Amino acid sequence: MINIAVIGCGRWGMNYVRLLHEMPDIRLVSACDGDSKRRELAQGRFPQLEIRENMDTVMEDNNVEAVIIATPAATHHAIVKRALKAGKHVLVEKPLTTTVEDAVDLEQTAAAENRLLMVGLTFLYNSGIQKMREAVHDPAFGTIYYLHLTRTNLGPVRQDVSAIWDLASHDLAICSYLLEKEPIWVQANAAKVLGQDQVDVAFITLGYADGTLANIHVSWVDPNKVREVVAVGSQQRIVFDDLNPGEPIRIYEKGISASRQEANSFGDYRLLTHEGGIYSPRISPAEPLREQVAHFIDCITVGKQPVSDARMAVENVRQLAAIENSLNLQGMRIPIKPSQAAHAVLEESNVPLARAS
């Protein structure tokens, strides 16, 4: 039986409380929040649960082995570090932090304290995305050309972070998960259409060393709600639609590739097309957040390596920071931690070697 506490009783915090109440082999010790209205709402939903105002009692309770942190992103560094130093395993909502330096500091702290640090990137625990990863790496898919990801809706508009840090963090993680590699550059354009301090809509392009591209569109001012990931390869096109529970994955057996055979005419030059059917593989129904929490518990109890571990979380923040850097430089292409080999590729492409802060 693992003793867990939840810090933060907002919308996501209450989702965690609900799940922990339903899961076996877990004892939810308490939840805490500094907002009296949130505490009142939480107590009304879970009258038997101890709801605390101050997190000090959680941090000082040696019986609490793990904490789930669902507080504003700007507070993550201080709370997560304190929890790790107190000997707690930590699952924290994305993004891990709002700066690369703070993210690296937490990764190092977790290693020094020998504590588990996992970040809530829930789409990595979505059975549809997991099936898509399997399909992308199937030889039948062929060579990956590009990814296209769309995440739009009317709100919820946040004040603590932009639509990029709130929404694109999911899509950046999905790209890393599907492609099993990190981008070497990013380029972004965005707008503040609501006239607020934070970016509302953004268009982001990621580039990889092998020439693969990924394009991400995020917006919280679009009345059409879309959660879609498209992978285009030489033999297939795969579409994940999170809003289609009946057929979340569709595989189109169509593609085009370069031919090494001699062409019969100029119009056929080096191109081969592939035509086939359309099918939807069976996806086992599961709540991604529940799968994420169960994975967190497994990682604690049996020593599994988290899918969304500290390393992935740091890279996620590094990419977000590079996107912000690109916006500040009016859409300039920004390299991300270029290795010696990547540096040569960037120089050949005349890419400015500015560094993300």
Describe the protein.
- With 357 residues, the protein is an alpha/beta fold.
- It is 34% helix and 26% strand.
- The protein has 10 helices and 17 strands.
- The strands form 3 sheets. Strands 16-13-12-11-7-10-9-8-17 form a 9-stranded mixed sheet. A 6-stranded parallel sheet has the order 3-2-1-4-5-6, with helices on both faces.
- Strand 5, helix 5 and strand 6 form a beta-alpha-beta unit.
- Helix 4 (76-85) runs parallel beside helix 5 (100-113) and helix 5 runs antiparallel to helix 9.
- The longest helix has 19 residues, at 310-328.
- It is globular, with a radius of gyration of 22 Å.
- 41% of the residues are buried.
- Residues 338-357 have low confidence and may be disordered.
What structural class do you assign from the helix and strand content?
alpha/beta
Biggest pleated-sheet summary: 9 strands, mixed
In DSSP terms (H or I, runs of 4 or more residues), the helix count works out at 10
Spans where pLDDT lies below 50 across 5 or more residues:
338-357
Order of helices and strands: EHEHEHEHEHEHEHEEEEEEEEEHHEH
Rg measurement, Å? 22 Å
